[in-house]
Each structure stands twice: as C-alpha cells, then as structure tokens.
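lol forgot to send this yesterday, sorry. struct tokens for the thing we talked abt
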C-alpha cells in the first residue's frame, strides 16, 4: 500500500539559547543549524523510515530545491512536490537547554498548493491506501473530500491547532491525532468530548506520559505509557509519533502495536537534536 501525505516542507533554522527570551530581551544564541523540517516533511520521513511507501504532495519555493532533493535522498517520493515561485516555508526555532522550544513559521509555498495539484496526485492512489494531512498547507478541505472519494483511509494531525479546521473535515476522518491541549480546546469549541466525535479512532498524545487511544465505535479507551528518556529536543517528536503510527497501520499492524511502535519512535526522537534529518529508522527502535 502507499501513504499520500499533503504536507508542509520547511527549512528549519534552529538557534540554541540558554533560556527563552522575555518580552523586549535580546539573547545571543550559542549554536545554530539549518535542516529539513515542516510537519509534512517530518511525517513523510517518519513513514518511510518506519517501512512504508510515501508519496509527498506539496510545494517548495525557488530556494527549496535542496529540500526536495533531501526528501528524495531519504526515500520519500517527490513527484508531486512542486517547485513554485517565491519563498519556501521556513521555521525559526528557539531551543533552550531544557529541550523546550518556541517556533515562528513562514508558510511560503506551503500555502500555494492548489486543488489541481491534489487531484493530479490522488488520481494515482488506490483504494485501501492511506492519506494524511496537517494544518500547514492550503486546500485541506478539498484533500479530505478527494481522499474519501478515492476510497483512502484518512488520518489528520490537527496541528498547528484550529478548531474550525477540524470541524470542517471531521466527517471525512478515520483517524484524528492531537495533543492533550488541543483535545481540550476542541472539546471547548465543539461542546463534545473526544469520545463523542464522529471519528473511528482518536489518538491523544500526552508528552512524556504517553498517549490515549479512543475507539469511538466500541467505547474503548486505552492509555499507553511512553518509554522514559531524557529529552534533548522535543521538536518533531509528535510528527515522528504520527508518521510511525500511520505507517504501522498502513502495514497492517493492529492499533495497539502501531501505537507502541510510535511511542518508541517518539521517545527516541526527543533524545536527538534536529527534525526530519534525525528521525530514527525502524531498526533503531
């Protein structure tokens, strides 16, 4: 099977600082690196390193050829990753000594993806394939409808979080992944707890405490503990978790087994500095 990912591709500009700045404060960074990132690119790399075939749907700008080439080098299929005029997406990341981060995003070419680009890509998909998307691109509603019409299993990582964006695609979803804060915000916005959502499987990540899986059809609620590690950098850990989860399901694993694999991948990821470039392989788990 294949995974079709409508996802962002960003240049991650990471600055190491002793602590996060307060309003009006100027800090000197003591280290810096540039790497491949974006929630979409991270998930595509994670899916591939977990062992799945991944087709990335998206766009980079005139300065983004190196990112497209790097994704291809990592094994992600980039035939549906367009080169467009203007800048690529960028993320400026402040990372402190405790492993916490603050991030500023420039959308760039990620918001210039068109419905025609989505349709051209999904015309190659087959029923039973999996589609996944996040909130860092354009045409998400169209992608959800097109994926459902093509007979694909549809997963959605609701980040950066917008309750209205979730509500707009909820009827099409098979799997929803969000963190605990996002789950609380969604419940407040919709007046429905996660257990009442019209989505077969809801997964709520809990950081170092693990994750919770809700199967709404059966009412099953299970919590999975995360491996205990010392974090170095939490950037990209959630994307790694989601990519491994979707790849596991794509490969026929039961939800429990896919979640356990995803937990290991996310835990290993936070012990590394960087994003897409350092996502672990399945053998490393």
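and heres what i got for the seq, position by position
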């Amino acid at each position: 099977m294949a995974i079709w990912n409508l996802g962002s591709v960003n240049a991650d500009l990471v600055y190491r600082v002793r602590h996060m700045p307060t309003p009006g404060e100027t800090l000197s960074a003591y280290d810096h690196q540039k790497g491949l990132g974006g929630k979409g690119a991270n998930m595509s790399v994670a899916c591939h390193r977990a062992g799945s075939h991944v087709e990335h749907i998206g766009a980079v700008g005139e300065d983004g050829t190196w990112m497209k080439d790097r994704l291809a080098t990592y094994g992600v299929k980039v035939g549906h990753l367009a080169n467009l005029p203007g800048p690529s997406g960028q993320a400026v990341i402040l990372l402190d000594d405790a492993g916490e981060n603050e991030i500023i995003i420039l959308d760039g070419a990620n918001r210039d993806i068109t419905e025609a680009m989505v349709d051209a890509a999904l015309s190659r998909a087959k029923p039973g394939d999996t589609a996944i998307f996040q909130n860092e691109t354009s045409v998400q509603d169209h992608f959800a409808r097109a994926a459902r019409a093509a007979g694909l299993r549809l997963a959605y990582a609701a980040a950066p979080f917008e309750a209205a964006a979730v509500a707009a695609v909820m009827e099409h979803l098979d799997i929803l992944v969000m963190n605990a804060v996002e789950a609380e915000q969604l419940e407040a916005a919709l007046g429905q707890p996660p257990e009442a959502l019209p989505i077969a499987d809801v997964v709520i990540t809990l950081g170092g405490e693990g994750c919770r899986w809700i199967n709404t059809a059966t009412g099953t609620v299970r919590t999975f503990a995360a491996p205990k590690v010392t974090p170095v950098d939490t950037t990209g850990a959630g994307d790694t978790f989601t990519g491994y989860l979707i790849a596991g399901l794509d490969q026929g694993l039961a939800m429990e087994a896919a979640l356990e694999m995803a937990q290991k991948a996310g835990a290993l990821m936070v012990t590394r500095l960087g994003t897409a470039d350092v996502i672990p392989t399945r053998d490393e788990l």
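The two ends are 23 Å apart (CA to CA). anyway ping me if u want another try
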